[in-house]
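To: structure desk
From: M.T.
Subject: fold request, one chain
Message: Could you run this one when you get a chance? Sequence is below, nothing fancy, just the single chain.
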Amino acid sequence: MRKHGETEVFRITGARQGLADDVRGRQRRYVISMSIRTLAVIAAAVLWNVERHVAIVALVLGGLLPYISVVIANAGRERAPSPPPTFVPAPTRPAIGPADDTTEAPTDHS
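Reply: Done. Structure tokens follow.
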């Protein structure tokens, strides 16, 4: 059993995000990127005979977004550059020192 003065203190502010939350976030980023890609391809098809320059830009964007989406979606769970320590020692209480010799205790001279 530990003494009261040897309490371990844990810091959780530097804890990483949970795996399920990380996967959910990466899936959400991928779906958003692929939705933008779908809209770009549809815009290219609609604008092909109206505004060809915009349609070509949308088509190029629709061609590049799958690669960018996969790179963004896989960019997860990297290590933090320097995470804070997870263990912080408990603060030590100052010890009571010896009594000062300059103050004398009252003596009883009876």
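Reply (cont.): The chain has two helices and two strands. Let me know if you need anything else for the meeting.
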